[in-house]
Task: inverse folding
């Protein structure tokens, strides 16, 4: 984790790589728990037997929304900015799903600070998060996440 002494210090890193997280396994229990929370029990995610026979992937795959939700967790693992009272998720500018995350895959996040704008009481930043899959050349997901930091 990188710690920045202030919002102003963090903003100086616009255009730079913020870091890469550790690998995390996406197992069936995690996929099933996500399905339970979201109500999305589509067979391609939760029915291992059917996926083995009918899925073009030969096994279950993580929900795209599960993969996307990891971006916030990855950012929490990568950065800490001192003097920030509150961080608000401002949304997403762009999201692309490039490769499905098969059950049993290991994923990690790679974050780059692509835009940084000071505000009177904090800052608005855009961080591009790539969700990489171990052994794959294409990322699972690329998302431009908007965050608002408040002092």
Result:
């Amino acid at each position: 984790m990188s710690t920045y002494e202030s919002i102003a210090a963090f903003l100086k890193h616009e255009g730079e790589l913020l870091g890469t997280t550790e690998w995390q396994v996406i197992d069936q229990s995690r996929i099933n728990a996500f399905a339970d929370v979201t109500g999305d029990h589509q067979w391609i995610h939760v029915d291992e037997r059917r996926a083995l026979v009918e899925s073009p992937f030969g096994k279950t795959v993580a929900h795209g929304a599960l993969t996307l939700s990891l971006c916030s967790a990855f950012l929490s693992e990568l950065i800490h900015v001192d003097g920030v009272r509150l961080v608000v998720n401002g949304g997403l500018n762009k999201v692309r799903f490039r490769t499905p995350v098969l059950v049993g895959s290991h994923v990690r996040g790679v974050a780059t600070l692509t835009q940084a704008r000071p505000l009177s009481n904090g800052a608005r930043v855009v961080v591009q998060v790539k969700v990489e899959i171990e052994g794959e050349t294409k990322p699972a997901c690329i998302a431009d996440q908007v965050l608002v930091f408040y002092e």
Observations:
- The radius of gyration is 17 Å.
- Strands lie at 2-4, 17-20, 24-25, 79-81, 86-97, 106-119, 122-133, 141-150.
